[in-house]
Design goal:
Oligomer: homodimer
Largest interface: A-B, 102 and 118 residues
Subcellular location (chains A, B): Nucleus
Pfam families (chains A, B): Homeodomain
Largest sheet of chain A: none
Strand content of chain A: under 5%
DNA-binding region (chains A, B): 75-139
Radius of gyration of chain A: 25 Å
Organism (chains A, B): Salix suchowensis
Protein name (chains A, B): Homeobox domain-containing protein
Distance between the termini of chain A: 59 Å
DNA sequence: ATACTATGAATGAAAG
DNA sequence: CTTTCATTCATAGTAT
């Protein structure tokens, strides 16, 4: 079939990758993609300052093939989108037990939902996970200071949205986000060689260390 | 790329690539590598020939986020984010012994990884715990649980059921498992400094990582 | 086309 | 070790 013209020496047209390999590959490429993105930006910024046209010529890679994003977005796997029917079932189940369904439960649900479309257990698992997390967030968002113990009410009709998406950065010094015109999310990384680690906010050893280092040793 | 030409071999959870896809992948990576090399060089050249100090001062993000390698707001990130270099090492170690590293082992690993950025033993410990747990979950997600809809011993024997891939599917009749030689070269271009700066992978998640979604349906 | 929002997915950390 | 929580990223859908 498809290996009619693109077959390797073995004559087999397909190869199987493990998740590990897949993941690694994805990571590698992501790294490249990010590097390129940033370098390109830098390049653009620099270009704006001076005209070093001569340098650009002769290099097919930064002339424009790159800048025009010929490399990016080559096919992409899109994420699962629950069908209305599936959603309904999920919501219903969620209402009953807004707790995490057990493994077996997940399986059952998955099987059930599979009748309405392609779905995997992971999808179901994620859905509940997200549903729960978001439900909780919304609750805390609408009741800032009241008692929060009895709030188990489902508020899906509440399309409460954050008035201010909040950059989630408590640090608002002179930082000028450049993300105005491009998605440069996470311009920061956790490389604080100088910042103290926050693993042990005191002098106590994390539970696991005690267990493994002190008791076990 | 039209996915219509390819098929997943009916694999459930197995990623099957055709030679064509493989070729494309290789090409993409090559392109990235080349681009990065070129851009890095260009950047170096530019940096050398001018001192865009003004720009630097005015824009902490533009100056050269890549070279400074740690331009991020202190305290803006709470949780550790492994850098590509660290991840690579971790994955490698995980491959060898996917068992829990002993206390000394953790220390060693931590020390090793510290060369690439801030990290603590707790981070390493957690990483392995998560890695293992998720590896297991993934495989159980597609586990050949032929059992009917009974909730029997849920503890099942997915201990070391399949040590190899998280998800193998007995449908690889004409599929050749990708050997570990399929590794494309790592970002071996001289941009380690840059790599260390990045932490947001996934600006481009091509067709791999695809699952049994409706990609073929 | 651009921006925004809703939400699926990934993952570090913590609880049990 | 297993399960759950919290936060973040990326993308599909939708509005401007």
């Amino acid at each position: 079939m498809e290996d009619g013209k693109f077959q390797n020496g073995g004559g087999l047209g397909v190869k199987v990758m493990t998740d590990e390999q897949m993941e690694m590959l994805r990571k590698q490429i992501s790294v490249y993609a990010t590097i390129c993105e940033q370098l390109v930006e830098m390049h653009k910024a620099l270009s704006a300052q001076q005209d070093f046209a001569g340098m650009r010529l002769g290099n097919p890679y930064f002339c424009d093939p790159l800048l025009s994003s010929s490399v990016h977005k080559i096919g992409s796997r899109q994420r699962w989108t629950p069908k209305p029917a599936q959603l309904e079932i999920l919501e219903q189940i969620f209402k009953q037990c807004n707790a995490t369904p057990g493994r077996q439960k997940i399986k059952d649900i998955t099987k059930e939902l599979a009748q309405h479309g392609q779905i995997s257990e992971t999808n179901v698992y994620n859905w509940f996970q997200n549903r729960r997390a978001r439900s909780k967030r919304k609750q805390s968002a609408i009741l800032p200071n009241s008692g929060e113990s009895e709030v188990e009410t489902e508020i899906e009709s509440f399309k409460e949205k954050k008035t201010k998406p909040e950059d989630s950065q408590p640090d608002e010094e002179d930082a000028t986000p450049v993300s105005d015109h491009m998605h440069f999310h996470s311009p920061d990384i956790g490389i604080d060689q100088f910042v103290g680690k926050m693993e042990s906010p005191g002098s106590c050893i994390p539970y696991w260390q005690m267990e493994q280092y002190d008791l076990f040793g």
